[in-house]
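Objective 1b: paired records.
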Amino acid sequence: MAASDEQLMLAYAGGDARAFESLYAKHKGALYRFVLRSVGARGEAEELYQDVWLRVIEARSRYTPSARFTTWLYTIAHNRLVDHWRTRGLVLVSLDAEDAAPPEPAAPPSSQPQLQLEARQMLERLATAIAALPLVQREAFLLQQEAGMSVAEIARATGVDEEAAKSRLRYAVAKLTEAIGDE
């Protein structure tokens, strides 16, 4: 049976470097997408992403499995993003800077040019709509979609109560639905 993330983190805290490699390999994609979609600029996202993993490394001796590892990891990411936004004078209820480009959408699996064009346009509308969400709503939405977190885990990671997390998620989904239509 494979070790849980929590067991891997405890093993890493005990000196097992392979345990960290396993955790990194498992969570790198979703965590990077979360950070990238939160800030919108690749250069900033890469720096913040590395900072999050550095903080995981630095905190390994203090890690206690009081919640899922992903909740702990995304709490670190949330706190790093809050620090990032504060240094830029942004507040959590503001919109992102207008010049922050949404991530490039992935190519659709279809080989038909018209369907590819429609799928790309839909992904661009979705990426633009996600980028336009207020930061707290975007964060809740991305934690659910990228990290697979529950409302309770989102609340814990962001330091709010479950009702606030649920509300942020509900408003994000409503705004995204409105922005992209019934497609």
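Objective 1b, second protein:
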Amino acid sequence: MHRVRRTLLCIVAIAMVIGPALVGAAQEGAEPHEASLMDLFWPVVNFAIMCGVLYYFLKAPLAGYLKDRSETIRRDLVEAAALKSTATAQLEDIDRKLKALPGEIDNLRARGQAEIVAEEQRITQQAIAERDRLLEQARRDIDVQVRLAKRELTEHAADLSVQLAAERIASETTEEDHNRMVTRYLEQVKR
């Protein structure tokens, strides 16, 4: 690289030194055909100088840009390859899940049916237990009501018996029987 720069700089320096002398000599005694060749020489030299200067000043930035661009493209290619492999893996996973989906649906249906049967059995058992509890409670309530009714009936029968006995005693007891009972009671109290 350094050789090319030195060579270009030498050519530019020589062209700058010799160029004006050749132009002056060509204009003094040259033929028209030769003068046109000399006229063409300087634009070519100017173009070469311009190319050399552009090469000298733009070589480093252009090389850096191309290097950065190359690295960016490589990085993008690596990322694209990684994205492609990730996408492929995701597609395979989705395909696998889609293929397994009918089996999962069947399993869910079977599990749902089993849960429905188990829930029905649980509800039936709960209803039976509730019915038995209510029946037992009704029996106890009926027993209590029967006992209360028996007691009331017994009390009523006793009241009726006492009333009937009192009426019979009142109707069959004479004044003498009454006096005798009072006397007996008073004797018992005195003792």
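DSSP finds three helices and no strands in the chain. The first helix runs from residue 2 to 29.
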